[in-house]
Every structure is written in structure tokens, then in C-alpha cells.
Queue: 2 jobs
Job 1
Amino acid sequence: MSGPTDTAAETRPHAELWDEVTSWLDANWDPDLTVDAWWQAVADAGWTAPHLPVEHGGRGLGRRAQVVVRAAFASFGALRPPGGLGLLMAAPTILAQGTPEQSARLVPPVLEGRVNWCQLFSEPGAGSDLAGLTTRGTRDGDRWVINGQKVWSSMAMQSDYGMLLARTDLDVPKHHGISWFAFPLDQPGVTIRPLREMTGHAVFNEVFLDDAVCDDRDLIGGAGNGWAVTQTTLHFERTGIGAGGAHAGFPEPGPKGGMLGRRAGDAALDEPPNEKLTLGYDDVAALAVEHGRTGDARIRQELARLYTYSEVGRWNALRGRAEAQRGGGQSVASTGKLQQTRIVKLAARLGTELVGAHGLLAGADGPEGGVVAEAMVFSPASSIYGGTDEIQRNIAAERALGLPRDLRPS
């Protein structure tokens, strides 16, 4: 049975693009280049983000082109283009909300893999109620002085820049006094501490800001307009991590990950980062075959349910991208995020059931190198990261269905 993420099925309608990428790789792939030099060539050719306009470093292709291009790179054996939150959220936000100067200065390093970005949104007292943030930004000439604390910042230890939200005006309603900064992390006054999760990893971090500074030229969208800029960022985040999103398994950019100076051919052999924190339909179907459970009527029903969720999620993601091009799609992105949560949890539960109790063993002692245990322990996070399930349901109910808002203390 072919899965919803089957590469051939995804790329068949894009055979011409596949051939174009392969021809380019035939002429340009050199495994002896450094990763830095290879990614520069890839960016110059517009393959890092082929869905972006040509004038912004892309090739002016459809949103799905990014998936086809990266699959073609992997099939060819070449190191794929860089990824990270800069590509997923920061660059498209800056292109949508920033000035031409900001776009020209901040986006190319993302496409070339020279910098890594993290998200500095959530705070200890402002997670789901993001507009309640208390981190302060105070104007001081041509710069801003930042004080506060952020938490649940993915990959902050490996990042060079942060998408920072700070309150820059206390005299207006809370949604109107927020600003969005392209914030440099490598400076005095920034302390980053990793947070160890129950998975054993430390993807998330807390970040302390004590009289840190940010140039006014790195204020994106204007002072006090940060909430509108934030909605743009959140849309790209939810579209990317929602069902059908294409963000997973990209090589990590920036100097701190140790990639840039490596031989590109060696880096191409690496296991894609974070690719197996979750299971997909194909993974679970393979486990059913391996453990002789394909004749079990209930297991078959659950596999059909997972396949259906995955396909509907993929279609929803395509719809979301189409609506985004018309200036909408926020509620579609929230629905996609909810669908992804459902997929992640069902796949983890079904995978654990298929392999049995020993599937809870982590690492080399567990089935498939502990992948099943990893997916099960990680799966609860899907209801939290990128906006909680409750928040996504509110967005879908209020913005898509037009239902009345709940009474709120404010």
C-alpha cells in the first residue's frame, strides 16, 4: 500500500521540475566542496526556497516545489539545502512585513545557510496568551534596550538570531504595544539555558535578556505593529508544522551546528535531523507488516484512519498555501496544526501497540533503534508547540466558523 508521503506519488506531477533539478545537480554537485560553498551555490541557483520570487532568491515556483526539489537532492545523493526556523518563519515574515533593505540584508544569509534562527515569543507568564508578554523594549537613540525572559525557544543554543517580541509601548492596549525584532543573540546580556525534556533531549531553551540591545534598523514592521507581524510568523509556523508541512529533516544551518566547514559529501550521508521524533503512516504500516498484524481487522481499521488523517491533512496544507497566496488561510493553518497533532498521537499509539512492550525501550535496545519509544514520549508535545490545541480550536471557531468569542476577563 502506498503511503501519503510516498516520494514518487508526490513528485510524479512535477517530473519536469525533477528533471531540471537533476540536470543541475549533474552539472554542479561536487562532494569535495565545503558545505558553506555548496549551500552558496544552491542559493545562487534559487533551489533553497524555489517557491520565493526570483527577486528574493527563489525561482518563482509553486509552494510544493520545495518538497520536490529536496526529494530530488536526496535521491541524487547530494546534500540537501539548509533548513531551520529562519527558512520556515523568519525569512518569509521579513519578506512580507519588512522593508526592501531589511529583506536584502537579512534573507540571503538564511537562504545560504550561514545563520540559524530561533523564536523568542513565549514567556513563563505568556504562552497561550502571547499578547500578555512582559519583555520590554526601550528606545535609546538608534537602538532598543531589551529586558525580559523567554522560554520554550527551540534551538536557541544553536542560533545566531531570534525572532523577538517585546513590549515597546505600555500606554496602549496590549496587542498594540508589541514590536517584532530581528534580534542578534551573540552579545552581552543574553543568557541561554537548555531545558532537558522527558525525551532526554534539550531542544528547548530559556533565554534571559538583561540590557541586551537591538538596532532600530532590525525592527520589522514598525514600532507597535508587532502583533500583525506575529500573525504572519505564526501562519508560516503552523503551515510548516501542520499536516502536510515540508519543514522536517532539513540540514541545520549556521556556524554553531558545525556544518559549514565540513565536506559536503560527508554531510550528505548524515541522518536528517529530527526526522524520527514522530512516526508517519509509512512507518506504522511497515511495522504492521513486520509484526504480522496486517490481517487484524482492528489494526487495518486504525491504519486506514491514519492514512485518511494524513491525506486530509496534506490536502488541507495545499489549500492553506493557496489561500495564503490570496492573503488568507490563518484558520486553515490552525486546522492543519490540529490535524498534525491527531496524526502524531495516533501514529505513536499504534506504533507502540504493534511492537509491544519492548517498544518502550529507548536507544539501541529498542525496536528500530528506539524510534517507537522516542515517538511515543515526544507525541504529547504536539498539542503544545506552535500554539496549543485549545488556541487553534478558538482560531478555527472564531475566524472560520464565525462563532462568538468566549467572555474574557479583559
Job 2
Amino acid sequence: MPRDRASTTARILDAAQTLIARDGVAAAGINAVAEAAGVDKVLLYRYFGGRTQLLRALARERAVWPALEVPAAADGDATLAGDVAALLLALARALRENPLARRAAAWQLAERDEFAREISAARAAQMRAIAAALRARHRVPPFLDLDAILAVLAGAAVHAALQGAAPPAGGELDLRRNDDWLRAERALRRTVEALLGAPEG
């Protein structure tokens, strides 16, 4: 019955999502997911084909990478620096608040399997779309390598979000604390303004 299959599929994805958010991607093995979902692992193979396909389905259907859009311009006063800063802060905050997305981002940085490639492809497509939207809205000087700047600063935002889930190694901000997180946000905004804050006229 289609309804039963849809319900079981959702339960399996829920179980995989919970395991990954709590223990990391490596914890989402076939046996562990089947047990957490309360289903026979045969059903998992039948519906998904295997672990790789399950993780790919999870990457497509759940928030393993935050959705970002160029913010709407308020009264036509948007600047390139303001838009880039808003996007990067939205990315960092979304990762900070979503354990599944954080675990997926960490996996994508460390591994080269199908799940990591799925996340990388989504992230790359999103950055290309954002760069195109920024160029359409702003007068970006030809000497400014916007794609590279976005890649480097997005990497910093991702690192901040990942670091915010772990104790500091020493001598650095404790990004689990809200006051240190806000310091990091201000630093990121000022960095963007220093790089991109020149007038667009």
C-alpha cells in the first residue's frame, strides 16, 4: 500500500536523521537505522537499495544543507557587503541551529563518499546561484573574484558553526557561548565590509 510505504520511508529517514544528528554519519549503518526505525532491514534495502542510496535520499529530502537566498532589498539600499554578510551569517546560524546540517557539513569536509559528494554538489550549486544573484543586483568590479571570496568566507562561516558545537582547543573563542558567537558574527561582518564595502557607483 502506498500510504504504508510512504509512512515507513519517512520513519526510516527520521531514524537516519536522528542517528546522524546525535552520533555522526558513521552511526547511520543499515542495522542501526533499521533498529531505530523499528523495521526489518530488508525493507530498508527494498525502499532505498542500500546505505548509499539512503544517505542520498536524506541529502535530497532533509535539511542537510541550509537553503540560502540573497535577501530582499529594503528600499533599494542594499549593498554588496551587506548582502554577502547577511548570507554568511544566515549560513553560520542555520548550521549552528541544525545538528543534522552540522554533521553533514563535517562529513562533507572529511569524506569523499556519495553522501559527501551530494552535499558538495548542493553547496556548489547554491554558491553559484548566489554569486549570479549578487552580480545581477550589484555592480561587481571585474577585478573582484566574487566566487573565490564567497568560497573562502563561506568556509569560515561553516568552520565557525562546526567549532561552535565543540569546546575550544585553547586560546580561541568559545563559540558555544552566545557572547563569543556574537563577537564572531561582528568580526565576520566587519571582514566582509572591509573587503567589499567600497561604493558601487
